[in-house]
Structure formats: structure tokens, C-alpha cells
Design goal:
heterodimer; A: alpha/beta; 5-stranded parallel sheet; 15% strand; B: alpha+beta; Beta-Lactamase; 4 domains; 5-stranded antiparallel sheet; 16 helices; 45% helix
Chain lengths: 141, 660
């Protein structure tokens, strides 16, 4: 649980999670991916609270892949809290949504999302985008 | 001022006086027949000219001065001056000038009521003549001459007195003549006589003498002492003159004068006061004229009920300000006056006169006066009848105007009620539509997220199977997986198109003026990847239009996309964009191709959602492009239609709301 995590995947749909993991695996990016299944769990993971109380809260993921439509706490609220907290503000967040709705796109941008990707995506392109964000060094060390 | 012209006309036409209405700058707007009689100009000659027209040379500037005072709200009463007639002759007038105010009480003009002093002068002349006659008669033989001793007893024969009174000489003798004098005047005679005797001065008085027909006549009496040689009064000689006629003329002149003043006051009241003030002011004027304390003045309304807008009957308090008496309650004195259409008078402590106001033999109002210290006379009744006749046409005009005003207000109130109902219905409908819209939006949002998730799984896993597990699959299985994947993709497109269509319908229109040629250029740039290089594009002159930029671009994209698609199999695809000559000011744009066209028998299906006239294998598409075009054009208030012949190309036309 205290292993360093590069990518936090927040996804409630098991099929989507599996497909995403598959793509990341194929491109050798899956080793340090951690999957959580709702917004509350994602926040607990990031801030070391709840079930993740023992986790080293200083050890932030290098990036988040965030679905918008999530149980308990929705993706936009997770994004807002992560970007509102000075410690976590610099974690790059890729919003990974099934919606082309203007209002979702705009809300995500306003809240400081670093990238907005609509599912489904071209597997290779998606992997490349993730690699680029990781490589950009924006992540918290 | 002109809004009240009809009403004013009724007031001014029926007046004997000259009534002139002017604007504050002195331009004449109202000129009644009385003014024509007095000054000689017809209304056609006077209206529109400056009122200084009437000034004579020696009174130059006087009218401007009066108008300036009236503009300040002042009323100039009974101003005696000379004016000049059309024929140049001078005329002696008494003028009352009042401000005319609009509904906000601002002075907007002046009303001048001018009375010809000519008839007045005639009365004055009559008085003068009478006096002259009196003086000359004193010297004439018809003079009643008398002689009395110092005690006042008759001396000798009084033939003229005998003739006048019918008394015999014996009856006159001594103090007998006093029997012909009115008993009420005898005491006064004794007093005046004693005074004259004591001082030896002229004896002068007036008393009533019973004429031979029994009627008491008013006499002016004058006597002088005749002295003897010793300086003692020997006897008195004197004369009596019947001045009854002179008194009557005097009284008539006074009455006439007062009634003229009252008529002027009525005209001023109706010309210058507002509806609420009129009844009180008229009643006030009548009560003052009749020296009475109490009165009421009412009118008969449209329903035939007698209405009293004000009530000053002190010993009969009533609730509210206005009293209504339906025709069924017309009884007693008032009922008698109203039904019999004549004044009714009662005497005694509760004395009163009830006078109906008649217009063309219809009862239109009533006034009652009461509370005078002495009984009302036949003459008072006649006076009130005259006042009623004077008031009738003016009151009638006023009531008619007020009725029309009430009718207008009722109509306005009805319109307001209807409007309010309409607004309420529109509000309800709008609320319903908003609710429906919100539901639709929530539905679309849900569709866009949830419907696509399973599709992604179908598409993603079939792709993984095909890419990574192909060796384990036979070619038939691979083909089936390919079909599954293609269908998942197709369904994704359908969902996307449906969402776009729904979004376009819900998005609020942001209208602006747009260069249509720019929209076409943008649309063609977007469609570049699917446009064959050999295609011939003809862009005609496109006038600007008003509409939502994003939505109208979508219209051109969809129409051009269709044109490119359905002409793509031609050797030389030809696509033309243009605009028909503007017949009614609204541009009709069109997009034409030389493609496969469509069968006009199915033209009604063109614009339906998911309607396709070609098989999917032949031409790709979800069948939502034209439905979207129609939705956008309709939202702009325009019309879209298509024309084609199978295999000979198609043309799609659309219009937008014309510029306002």
C-alpha cells in the first residue's frame, strides 16, 4: 500500500477499467497503476484518509486518470478538491470521460484539468498521451 | 385641449355669451356662435388666428397682458373694456378669462367669456328713462298732487288721488287717505312726517298705495312746506308718483345681471374644472344664488338611476360620497318632480324646491335646494327652471363624455383581463416547456454517458480479440467479430448524431448578422477530407443574413456534406451554392448537386429523424443530417424544402426569418 504509485485510475465501470489497464499493460505503463472505483475512495487514497489512513500521504501519484461519472463523489468534485489543496494541486489530472457535453468539458477545464480525453480513444494515441504527461515531469516527486 | 373639443363645443354652442378658447400663445381654437354674434367673425374666420385680432387700436397689448396673467393661473373676472368688431365698430364688453388646465392641472390655454354690454346698456337706459320720466311727470298734470295741513290731514280735493285709489273725497278727508296706504308702511310715514314737520324740511319717502283695482303700487312721495308771511308753515304741498314699473325694471336688471353672472360661472365651471369638482361647484353657485343653505345636485346615469356625486344634506347623513337612487325608489317630492318633469315646491320650516333638469324632454338630472329663511316664491321656481334649462345641454354633453370615458375604461379593463389570462397561460406553458426541456436534457446527458459505456466494452474487447487473439480464431469467427465491432461503431455514431441533434434543438439562439459566404467557406474547409479533388465548386453571391452562427454553419455543413456524398460517384461532381433573387426581402439560399438525387415520391420522408432514402452500403450516414437542418431552420422561423429528379441531382432551399 505504501509502494510508490505512478498512475491513479479512478473508474467505476469494470469493463472500462479492464480495457484501460489492458492498453496501459500493452504499452508497459501498468506496473505502477492503482485502480479505485469511486470518488470517495479516490480522495481517501490521495489524502491518506479512510481505508487509506496508513498510506504515506506525502507519496502522491504522478498522475490521475479520472472518470467523471462516479459513484458517491463525482469526478468533477474529486477534481475540485485535488486542485484546491496546495499539496495536491500540481498532480496532473487527465479527465477521461464518455461525454462530449460542452458543460462537462468546460467544467473540467475551469477546475484545472490538465487534459480532457473522450472514451473510446485510439489505444496507441491514448497510451502516448499518458506517457507524455508522465514524462513532462509535472508530477510530484 | 383638443381632446375635449366635442364636449367644449356643446358647452359653448348653447351659450348666449361669446366664448373663445385660445392656446397660451393666443391662437384661437374655440369660437362659439355667441362670439360670432358679438364680434362678427365666423368660426372659420377666427379659429387659427391670434386673438389680438379683436383688439382696438387704443387697447393694443391688453390681451397679451391678460394671457400672461392667466398662464400664471389667475382668473380675470368681469373685465370691462372695448373691443373691435369685424366691421371695425367698437363694442363694449365685460370679459371673464379663466385658465384651461389639462389632466395634470397644467395651464394649457385660456377660456374667455365675453358679455356684450349692449343689452345691459339697454337696461341701464330703461332705468335712466324712468327717472327722467319721473322728473318730468312731477311737473305734469297727471301728477298726484296733494295738500295737507301741518298735522298731515288732507286739505281740499285730491282728484288724482281719488282717481288712482278709488277713494271718495269724504274718505280722503282728515287722515282718511292713510286707509289707502299699505298698513305696513303707515308707521314709517308718521315718523318721516314728524321729522319733516319738526325741521321744516322736505318730506320725502316711499310707500305702497292701494290702487282702485286692489293692487298695491309703490309710490315715491315728495312734499314741501308752504310758509305764511310770519314764517310759519301754513300747509304742505306734495306729489306722489307710481314707481312700481321703475322698481320692476330695476329688479329685473338686477336679476338679469345676477343670472348672467351665474351662467358665466357655470360655463367657467364646466370649462375649467375636473369631473369631481363640477357637481360641488355648480351646486355651490346655485345655493349662493338662491340664498339657500342646503342642496343636492345629481344626474341620471345609464341605468336610469339618479346619482348624487356629492351630498351636502346635513341632517340626512349617508354612507360614502355617492348616493344612487334606482328608478323604483323615485317617490315623494323628488319622484313627483322627476316623473311630472316640473319643479315642485314646499313651504314651511322644511321648505324646498325640487327642480328636474330636462334635455329634449328626458330627465337627465335634478337639483334640490332648501334651508332658506323665507319661503320660496313662484319667481324662485321660474328662476330655477331657467337655470335648469341653461344647465341641461352642458350637463348632457358632460354626462355623455363621462359615459364614453367609462365605456373606454371598461373596454381597457377587459383587454387587461384578457391579456393577464393570456400571460398566465403563456407562463404556465413556458414552465411546462422548461420542465420538459430539463427532462430532455437530463435524459440526453444520461444517454451520452451510460449508453456508450457498454458499446465501448463491445468495441474494445472485440478489437483486442481481433488484434491479439487472431491466431486462435477461425476466419468466420474473425469476420463475425469484425461485424460486431463495425456495428458497435455505427451505434456510437448514431448516439453522437442524436445527441448533437438534441443539443442543437435546445441551445438558445444567439442571433447576429452573418456573412453567409464565410459560413460556406468554413463548412467547405471542414469537409475538405471527404471532398473529391475533381469536384467542381460554384459559390454564387450570398447576401448576409441574421441568425445563430454555429447553427447556420451546421446547416451548410450538413447540406454540403450530403451534396458531396451523393455526387461523389459522378465523373465530375458539381456542387453549387447560391441565393435566389429576394422577392420579399428574405434571402432563399440553396445548395445544388448533380448527384443521384431522390425520388420526389418520398420527399415527405427527407427531413425525418433516421430517415434514409439510400441503403447504408451505398452511402454512409445515420439519416439525421436533414432533420438537423430542418430543426435549425425552423428555429430561425424559416422554411426548408428539397427538389430532385432521380439521377439528375438535387437542390435544397432554405429561408431564414427576414430582417426586422
Amino acid at each position: 500500500m505504501n509502494d510508490p504509485v505512478d498512475i491513479l485510475l479512478v473508474e467505476d465501470n469494470p469493463s472500462d477499467a479492464e480495457l484501460t489497464m489492458h492498453v496501459l499493460e500493452r504499452h508497459n505503463l501498468a506496473e505502477r497503476v492503482y485502480v479505485v472505483h469511486d470518488g470517495a475512495e479516490a480522495l481517501d487514497f490521495v489524502f491518506g484518509t479512510g481505508d487509506y489512513a496508513g498510506r504515506d500521504a506525502a507519496n502522491f501519484p504522478k498522475m490521475m486518470l479520472l472518470d467523471l461519472k462516479l459513484p458517491k463523489i463525482d469526478g468533477l468534485e474529486v477534481l475540485r478538491r485535488v486542485k484546491a489543496e496546495p499539496r495536491t494541486r500540481s498532480i496532473p489530472v487527465v479527465v477521461f470521460s464518455s461525454s462530449w457535453e460542452d458543460r462537462d468539458l468546460k467544467a473540467a477545464q475551469d477546475l484545472g484539468a490538465d487534459k480532457y480525453v473522450v472514451k473510446p480513444v485510439d489505444f496507441a494515441q491514448f497510451a502516448e498521451a499518458v506517457r507524455a504527461v508522465l514524462a513532462s515531469g509535472q508530477g510530484v516527486r | 385641449m383638443s381632446t375635449d373639443l366635442g364636449y367644449l363645443a356643446a358647452i359653448v354652442d348653447c351659450s348666449d355669451d361669446a366664448i373663445i378658447g385660445t392656446r397660451l400663445d393666443g391662437i384661437i381654437e374655440i369660437w362659439n356662435p355667441g362670439a360670432q354674434r358679438l364680434y362678427g367673425y365666423t368660426a372659420a374666420e377666427a379659429v387659427g388666428r391670434h386673438v389680438a385680432l379683436l383688439e382696438s387700436a387704443e387697447h393694443r397689448g391688453e390681451i397679451a397682458n391678460i394671457l400672461a396673467r392667466v398662464a400664471q393661473g389667475e382668473v380675470i373676472r368681469h373685465y370691462r373694456t372695448w373691443r373691435q368688431r369685424k366691421d371695425g365698430s367698437p363694442v363694449d364688453v365685460s370679459v371673464t378669462v379663466s385658465p384651461i388646465r389639462d389632466t395634470r392641472r397644467r395651464v394649457v390655454g385660456a377660456s374667455a367669456i365675453a358679455r356684450d354690454m349692449g343689452p345691459q346698456a339697454t337696461l341701464e337706459n330703461a332705468l335712466r328713462l324712468s327717472e327722467e320720466r319721473y322728473r318730468s311727470l312731477a311737473l305734469a298734470s297727471t301728477q298726484i298732487v296733494w295738500t295737507k295741513d301741518e298735522r298731515g290731514d288732507a286739505i281740499g280735493d285730491w282728484p288724482a288721488w281719488r282717481t288712482f285709489t278709488g277713494q271718495t273725497q269724504a274718505e280722503i278727508a282728515g287722515a282718511g287717505w292713510r286707509d289707502a296706504v299699505h298698513p305696513g308702511d303707515r308707521e314709517n310715514i308718521s315718523r318721516v312726517w314728524a321729522h319733516a314737520v319738526e325741521n321744516g324740511t322736505v318730506y320725502e319717502t316711499e310707500y305702497r298705495v292701494r290702487r282702485n283695482d286692489g293692487e298695491y303700487r309703490q309710490m315715491a312721495v315728495r312734499g314741501v312746506p308752504v310758509f305764511d308771511l310770519a314764517g310759519q308753515i301754513r300747509e304742505w304741498v306734495g306729489s306722489c308718483l307710481d314707481i312700481t314699473e321703475r322698481k320692476r325694471v330695476e329688479e329685473e336688471a338686477r336679476r338679469s345681471q345676477r343670472e348672467l353672472e351665474l351662467k358665466t360661472r357655470f360655463a367657467t365651471i364646466f370649462l375649467t374644472l375636473s369631473e369631481h369638482e363640477i357637481f360641488a361647484a355648480v351646486l355651490d353657485a346655485i345655493l349662493q344664488h338662491m340664498e339657500s343653505e342646503q342642496g343636492i345636485f345629481g344626474y341620471v346615469d345609464e341605468q336610469g338611476a339618479l346619482v348624487f356625486p356629492i351630498w351636502t344634506w346635513s341632517d340626512c347623513p349617508v354612507p360614502g360620497e355617492t348616493v344612487r337612487l334606482p328608478r323604483t325608489q323615485w317617490n315623494g317630492l323628488w319622484g313627483c318632480a322627476l316623473v311630472e318633469k316640473r319643479p315642485v315646491c314646499t313651504a314651511g320650516p322644511r321648505r324646498s324646491i325640487v327642480t328636474p333638469i330636462l334635455f329634449q324632454n328626458d330627465v337627465i338630472g335634478l337639483f334640490v335646494i332648501a334651508g332658506r329663511t323665507i319661503d320660496y316664491t313662484e319667481q324662485d321656481k321660474q328662476t330655477l327652471e331657467r337655470l335648469g334649462r341653461d344647465l341641461a345641454p352642458v350637463l348632457k354633453a358632460r354626462l355623455q363624455r363621462d359615459n364614453e370615458e367609462r365605456g373606454r375604461q371598461r373596454a381597457e379593463a377587459e383587454v387587461r383581463t384578457i391579456n393577464a389570462e393570456l400571460e398566465k397561460r403563456v407562463e404556465e406553458r413556458t414552465a411546462q416547456l422548461q420542465a420538459a426541456n430539463q427532462e430532455l436534457e437530463a435524459f440526453a446527458y444520461s444517454v451520452s454517458h451510460d449508453l456508450r459505456a457498454p458499446l465501448r466494452a463491445i468495441h474494445g474487447f472485440s478489437r483486442i480479440l481481433l488484434e491479439e487473439h487472431a491466431p486462435q480464431l477461425c476466419s468466420t469467427a474473425q469476420h463475425y467479430l469484425e461485424v460486431v465491432r463495425a456495428n458497435a461503431l455505427q451505434m456510437g455514431e448514431l448516439i453522437d448524431d442524436l445527441l448533437t441533434f438534441s443539443r442543437l434543438s435546445r441551445k438558445p439562439l444567439q442571433k447576429q448578422t452573418i456573412a453567409a459566404s464565410d459560413l460556406v467557406a468554413q463548412a467547405l474547409a471542414e469537409l475538405r477530407p471527404e471532398t473529391p479533388a475533381r469536384a467542381e465548386l460554384v459559390i454564387g453571391e450570398l447576401p448576409a443574413c441574421r441568425g445563430d452562427q454555429t447553427l447556420l454553419k451546421q446547416v451548410f455543413v450538413n447540406l454540403l456534406s450530403n451534396a458531396i456524398k451523393y455526387s461523389s460517384k459522378r465523373a465530375t461532381p458539381r456542387i453549387e451554392v447560391g441565393c435566389l433573387p429576394r422577392a420579399d426581402g428574405s434571402p432563399t439560399y440553396y445548395v445544388r448537386d448533380n448527384g443521384v438525387g431522390f425520388d420526389m415520391r418520398y420527399v415527405h420522408k427527407l427531413f425525418g429523424v433516421f430517415q434514409r432514402l439510400h441503403r447504408a452500403e451505398e452511402y454512409q450516414g445515420t439519416g439525421i443530417g436533414l432533420a438537423t437542418v430542418q430543426r435549425i431552420v425552423h428555429r430561425h422561423g424559416g422554411r426548408v424544402w428539397g427538389e430532385s429528379e432521380l439521377d439528375h441531382g438535387a437542390t435544397f432551399y432554405f429561408t431564414l426569418e427576414a430582417d426586422p
